[in-house]
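Hi team, as promised in this morning's meeting, here are the two structures we talked about. I've kept the exact order from the run log so nobody has to guess. The first one is mostly here for context; it's the second one we should focus on when we meet again. Sequence first, then the predicted structure tokens.
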Amino acid sequence: MVKLLLRPANAYVAEFTRDVPRTSVLTARSIMQPIQPGLTQHHLASTLKLDTLLALLADTDAKLPVVDENGTVIGSLDRRTAMLALSRDGAVS
């Protein structure tokens, strides 16, 4: 479902998924960016939903590390990327 929301294969799929509540489906893992050096000590669980992530990212401009269930850093996430994930037209890599 996440791939359908973020990268629909065609206009039909985009229309089909148009009303899916993105904040309840997208997770930190699905919208994170590749690992970058010098990340802050605070981290985000990869399973956090977008509605929770927005509240956590609201007060920081930092890229926060995203960790898997073992605590291993697997990527990073910032406020801009989270906000773009809300938009049906926003590109999330």
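And here is the second protein, the one for discussion:
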Amino acid sequence: MEQKLLEIFKLADELDKKQNVVYADIEYTADKRKKLVISIRSKETFKYIERCEVELANNPLIKWDNMIELFRSYVGGACNE
């Protein structure tokens, strides 16, 4: 899990450098639920374009590769004007 999360952080930084339309927003709440929220947001309006919320404390079956692929698609220009 740590390796996938590190890759998401790296892609989030790359997204900001390569995109002028969207940016990544990553929030982690370290309470009993250990909630992780990963979002793609508009730089102009700050509205959510994509959002994934996961409670890590419940040991969910997380599709890390799907989240990574989502970031890669935006880094590659899926929403670049």
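Starting points for discussion:
The chain is about 35% helix and 30% strand.
The mean pLDDT is 85.
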